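Hi C.,

You asked whether I'd gotten around to modeling the 412-residue construct. I have! Everything is below, sequence then structure, no commentary in between.
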Amino acid sequence: MRTRQAGTHLGRGLAAVPLLAAVIAAQAGAGTAAADTGSGGLLREQWALEAIGAQEAWDAGGSGEAGDEEAGRGGGATVAIVGTGVDTDHPDLRGEVTAGTDFSGGPGEGADGSSTALAGIAAARGHGKEHLGGVLGSAPGAGLLSVRVAPEGGEAADADALEQGIRYAADEGAQVVVVAEGVSAGQEGAGVADAVGDAVRSGALVLLPAGDPVAEAAGDVEGALTVGAVGESLAPAAGGTPGGAGAGADLLAPGAGVDAIAAGGDYAEVSGDDAAAALAGGVGALVRAAHPQLLPAQAAEALTAGAENGVLSAPGAVREADAAAEGVPLYDEDLVTEDDGLPVPAWTLWTAGGVLLIALAVVGVVLFRRATRNPYDLPEDEPVEVPAAAAEQERTTRSIGRRRKGAGRRRK
């Protein structure tokens, strides 16, 4: 991913003046008018969101099985960014990023990571009153999980760091996993492909940058998508995927000159197939949030089938997901039994009680036998039989002794 620090562009600045004036006038005229500006107002210009029809998809939110407006913006879904780390304190991300395990073996905590931009492209929420400042991601209601697998500008210390990071993201419950460009350097391709397969089987939709070796290693896994970048003309970006025309990519998405956040609370323009993958990952979160019963392969199919001329369309993906989920329940109703009374059948309680009584009786018998047995097998004492003559002689001797003692007392 290539980054260019955001500067002042005269054309964009002049275009924003009427919009900013309208926001100020609306706020002066009505206290709640700022909320009606939607994603406009003080937000930075984001041609990528307009190109994929993000606002239309958000406005249709709440029509899926999840049943609320937040789900229409990705609420309830988590996007994992497997890369070089995310600045979790950026104003447009604050409070929504979970910093996961660091597999990079590098110094620091990754707060300076360029993957901050990917997190913002996927799920930034803006900042300030009514979130009218900064930028928005394609799924501004989704949560984020940062999984660091390589230090910024370097390679991971271990050759299995990337596959560990992908598996970890899926194990943590991420519904969407986005892999950054460059983090596959020095990694074992076969292990990465196995990890992507495991993540898909765990329920995660995996987005891979089409121009990166990770796409070649794992791009054929069902439920994973390779994504290539296009510019504002919606033509494949130069230097994006091999061949320069999106060759080998399953899907194209805006990824050249995209406004994004940057580490340190800043903003920048970024370009790269991973930027396109992050944008598609956000739309994947919209699909997974609205229809959590869909499998990763079905969510991937919704993204590709809903595309327009091969380019990502958020409303198209949502429509395809709606059609795929029609008639598919959120859960298997055959596994659910209704019971208005006890939470379990009554016969199980009687059986459990009987078993408990029998167990207590057995324990009592065992304890009693242990207390009364002879643990060392000592011979038991037998009664001693005394001959009759000896017994009579003993009684006579005792009688004479008593008489002598009595005579002595009378002489006194």
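If it helps when you're writing up: The mean pLDDT is 80.

Thanks,
B.
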